[in-house]
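Thread: Newbie trying to understand structure tokens

Hi all, I'm a second-year student working on a class project, and my supervisor (Dr. K.) asked me to get a predicted structure for one chain before our next meeting. I've only ever worked with sequences, so writing a 3D structure as a token string is new to me. If someone could post the tokens and maybe explain what I'm looking at, I'd be very grateful. Here's the chain:
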Amino acid sequence: MKKLPWLVLAVVVLLAGAWFSGPYLAVRGLAQAIETRDTTRLDRYVDFPLLRANLRAQLNDYVVRRAGPEVQSNRIGALLLSASQTLTGTAVDAMVTPTGIDAVLQGHTLWKRASNDLDSTDAYAAPRAARPLQGAEHHFESLSRFTATTHTPDGTPVVFVLQRHGLRWKLVNIVLPLQ
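---
Reply by user tm_fold:
Sure, no problem. This is what the structure looks like when written as tokens:
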């Protein structure tokens, strides 16, 4: 009878540990999938439809804000803004897929090789892997929302937002440093 409270406590501690380690494991898995360019594994950690919708909304908002009220009130300006929203939507839809991410990572590899940013001094060495989540600051915003914040070279934050889907955590938004 005395063992029952300890058993219940052990189960509660194990469940809490599994609950709170979930987003950290997802960030680690996401980072490893990017570093190894494994788009199949990346699909496990990213909610691509929700990520596309969030990125599309950010970019459309940025274009409208940059255009200003003069362009928005003009008929030709409004037509151009509509066309730009279609173009940004199409670009986001094409790029924010496992295949689009693979293309970006291949471009990253080619850029690193061309700029001689290699793992060693050997000319045939592999280029340095992409590590966008290296040194990220992690925060729980709620029980089902978690952020990993990194900074661009000029210090502007880039926030990766993960959301709980059942027992799994997935990337649902990347808050871009658009001013």
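A couple of things are worth pointing out once you decode it. DSSP finds five helices and four strands in the chain. The radius of gyration is 21 Å. Feel free to ask follow-ups in this thread.
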